């Protein structure tokens, strides 16, 4: 299980702090609901890519002393299974949809290998399109709507960016047992 947490720092600072980041105290087990602080249970390393730079960062793992199951805490600038930060991903989705609306061709393939490839961006777009009903459902639960329109996907990504991507992801985390761009929206 993964939980998201705002460490109050950007990728660079999180990377520099390494195992000294301000990891949260988890007061109860999300699996068995035992109200007992979870033990820290080591780290694993994963990539966070932003601005053409790859950071190898530590993710903290926790374990319940009762049911022995684990959970990890991901900084809110990342999503599970995506190496690029949420800012990079949402910017790419936003730009790709803007290009589509304006009828422009995608720009020339980047030579920089640390930027998402065209296939990568197409993948983000697919995931995004699949999760639009979930986004609508989340905002509807907060009594926020946009008028039905052809470019609804574009309007939603604009709204999410206006809200603040990390804020949106934190607040919507767990809505209908899912999260932004989770791999569970396939029809
Ligand atoms: Zn437990």
Question: Which sequence of strands runs across the widest sheet?
Answer: 1-4-3-2
Count of structural domains: 2
Largest sheet, in brief, is: 4 strands, mixed
Number of helical segments with 4 or more residues: 6
| Total number of strands | 4
Rounded radius of gyration (Å):
18 Å
Mean pLDDT: 90
Oligomer: single chain
Q: Low-confidence parts lasting 5 or more residues at pLDDT below 50?
A: none
Task: Describe the global form.
Answer: globular
- What is the rounded distance between the termini? 23 Å
Helix/strand layout:
Blueprint lengths: L1 E4 L5 H7 L21 E12 L2 E11 L6 E6 L10 H17 L15 H13 L1 H10 L10 H12 L1 H8 L15
Parallel strand pairs: 1-4
Antiparallel strand pairs: 2-3, 3-4
Helix pairs in contact: 2-3, 2-5
The site of zinc ion has 8 residues, from loops.
Provide structural commentary.
The chain starts with a strand and ends in a 15-residue tail after the last helix. Helix 2 packs across helix 3 (118-130) and helix 2 packs antiparallel against helix 5. It has a 4-stranded mixed beta sheet with strand order 1-4-3-2, with helices on one face. It is globular. It has helices spanning 11-17, 86-102, 118-130, 132-141, 152-163, 165-172; strands at 2-5, 39-50, 53-63, 70-75. The chain is an alpha+beta fold and 187 residues long. The relative contact order is 0.14. It binds zinc ion. Zinc ion is lined by residues 29, 31-32, 34, 64, 66-67, 69.
